[in-house]
Amino acid sequence: MSVRLEGVSFRYPGSETDALHEVSVALRPGEVTLATGRLGAGCSTLLLVIAGLAPHLTNGTRGGEVTTIDRDPATRDGRKVLAGRVGLLLPTPWTQLSGMSFTVEEEVAFGPANMGWRRPRIAETVERAMERFGVAHLAQRDPRTLSGGELQRVMFAGVLAMEPEVLLLDEPALELDPAGAASMYEMLPSLAEGRTVVLASTDLDRAAAAAHRALLLDRGSLVADGPAAEVLGSDGAVATGCSTTIAEITRAVGLTPGYPLTVAEAVQRMRR
Amino acid sequence: MSALRLEEVWFGYDDTPVLKGVSLEIAGGEAVALLGRNGVGKTTLTKLVVALLQPRSGVVRAGGRITEGKAPEDVARLVAYVFQHPDQQLFARTVWSEVAFGPQQQGLSQDETRGIVGDALERVGLEAFAEVHPYDLPAAQRKLVTLAAAMAQRPRVLVLDEPTQGLDRAGVDRVADIIGGLTEDDVAVLAVTHDLAFVAEALERAIVLEDGRVAYDGASRELVLDEHKARALGLEVPPAAALSAALGLAGRPVRVREVMDALRGERGTGNGER
């Protein structure tokens, strides 16, 4: 297990309710785990807690035990050891810009350079990451002049260039056009090879197919945890709008739970 | 008379043109999607519409008036703009004063302002949050605050940049309802989006930009039904329409509710899971 939460609660400063409430979950490398729920369910908070940014940057109070790789990410020692080994992509890429780079290439190299890698290794990783995300042609551009979709891909490349063991993605396709979003989600399973990937998203028509496992959260509590097809095809998920459009349609027209998530599955089931 | 009209508009940030002769016309009461790939110039076009940018050549008319040379605050009486990210826009200390800013700038009386603000907050479902600081609300609700503020300007044209981004299913449905209400009031709505499912549900007409020009301008339903064309323009056929096509549903419904109705009809005749 590379991420383990036991009875974890988190409350933002000034709030009267828990953003996360007694969540216990263990995540392993090799899987894409989707965390989903209605807005305010706590999916983004879950990522921040795993990364240690909550409470380190957000303030607030955390209860329970969090182990990311082999450390509590909220401790000073944990932050030091886990830097670069845990990568977090924010849904708003411009808030993640280092502000220190004049070109896209420098921006992608920012993380690796801060980890004290040797130059050839930095150059090689940066080049590979830029190619993987289709931003190599933007290498010399000023990152502040990019479109939202271009910038989101650049920031993803920057996170991946650090070769993190735990990859936390908060709505990674928010800024992408349909073609870009499709290729990003197609890439996710391969990114999970030897790595723990947690994806927080409400973009379920796309994200469902990319996930091995799904966590369903409701107002901070973990209400379902299992194989993605099982969790998202359940009556509870579909009834609360936390599944795909196809599941919603097939439930409404009277299919039985274990709803199909994709067009192909629905066609198969309805022609049977 | 059209509410919004662009005639052969050219624009570029540097020597490379982004928009290369864009012409379009939108009538009051029309809800139109503006689609296209990342970086194609959708947001740029909307900034020309609200006079945050001026065209290199060509003419932008909003509410029948040429916007060139006019300050954004003068254009604001004709066109309201909802930014993609609420934090680019919000500035007031309470939701109420944020939404009241437009009417107050237009010199309306206190009573009139109260009425308009109350109505706008009701439409977005935030009546109970009038005295809350906008930044104490979650991002999705902050977005609705900016939408209410734009509606309170009572514009002829409302431009929305990615109005459904980051919203969950319930939020998307609400935005669709709000747009429906605005078009009934004869407001022209232009919504920049990547979300073709939302387009199929809420926007009758679609304009797709490709390589600086208008590559498609027509019924959004036709675009959603034509998988080949949609793909060629970098768009994805939404799941409901894809299911409708795959099952060959009669009348080819594309909206979720219509697909459900058609399926119920077919399943009633015994075609389906038993």
> How would you describe the shape of chain A?
globular
Pattern of helices and strands of chain A? EEEHHEHEHHHEHEHEEHHHH
Spans of chain A with pLDDT under 50 lasting ≥5 residues? Answer: none
Q: Supply the helix-strand structural class of chain B.
A: alpha/beta
Strand content of chain B: 15-25%
Strand tally of chain A: 9
State mean pLDDT of chain A (0 to 100 scale): 93
Q: Bin the strand percentage of chain A.
A: 15-25%
Bulk shape of chain B: globular
Write a structural description.
The complex is a heterodimer of chains A (272) and B (274). Chain A has helices at 43-51, 53-56, 76-82, 104-114, 119-132, 148-161, 178-191, 204-210, 228-232, 235-239, 245-252, 263-271, and strands at 3-11, 20-27, 32-36, 61-68, 86-89, 166-170, 196-200, 213-218, 221-227. Chain A is globular and about 60 Å long. In chain A, a hairpin with a 2-residue loop joins strand 8 (213-218) and strand 9 (221-227). Helices cover 39% and strands 21% of the residues of chain A. The termini of chain A are far apart. Chain A has 272 residues and is α/β, with parallel strands linked by helices. Chain A contains twelve helices and nine strands. Chain B is α/β, with parallel strands linked by helices. Chain B has eleven helices and ten strands. Chain B has helices at 42-49, 72-75, 95-105, 110-124, 139-152, 169-184, 196-202, 220-225, 227-232, 239-246, 256-268; strands at residues 2-11, 19-27, 31-35, 57-62, 65-66, 79-82, 157-161, 188-192, 205-210, 213-219. In chain B, helix 3 crosses helix 4. Chain B is globular and about 55 Å long. Classes of the chains: A alpha/beta (272), B alpha/beta (274). The interface between A and B is large, with 42 and 38 residues.
